[in-house]
Amino acid sequence: MSNQDQPMDQAQEPVTDVELDNQIADVEDELTVLQQKLEQAEAAVQEEKERALRIAAEMENLRRRAAQDVEKAHKFALEKFAGDLLPVIDSLERALELSDRDNEQLKPTLEGVELTLRSMLATVNKFGVSVIEPQGTPFDPNKHQAMSMIENPDVAPNTVIAVMQKGYELNGRVIRPAMVMVARAPSVNTSA
Predict the structure, then answer these.
(1) What pLDDT does residue 154 have?
(2) Dihedral through CA 49, CA 54, CA 60, CA 64, nearest 10?
(3) 187 CB contacts (<8 Å, ≥6 apart)?
(4) What is the pTM of this model?
(5) Which of 49, 66, 132, 144 could cross-link to 167 by cystine, CB 3.0-4.6 Å?
């Protein structure tokens, strides 16, 4: 007779304490294994959350850096072109400085050169190119290139006293430093 064929009123054999202890131990072992698997799964979920946060932060940093690079590219794209125009501006200024303003025959030409220079300066200024005006200011090695130093008791040491060639900036970045003459303190004569 199979177990299903046995009448319901027949009592099953009682479970012994040892068997019950073994069943409880098996359940506890299975519970421990399940708890370990749950802890491992929670740790894996936490790791994935942290990884996702790191990836999101990296993406944000990349996006910000790309935006900065684009902004710099727009801001300084004309740097080489502007630098190539500076000798032309210098030549126009030199032509005006060295010209004979008293010669009536040259006046129309000089007016044309002046208008051309003003137009060129206005155009490059519109695109962010500005002149560095160092005359009378303290020497700044980031914006000035000292060509010589001369003793001058009338001004403070390290003051720009003459500009040999103008400097220029493009949106705050020096594209050509000003070539200047700088004052130095008079040397003290110690011979008696």
Answers:
(1) 87
(2) 170
(3) 151
(4) 0.60
(5) 132
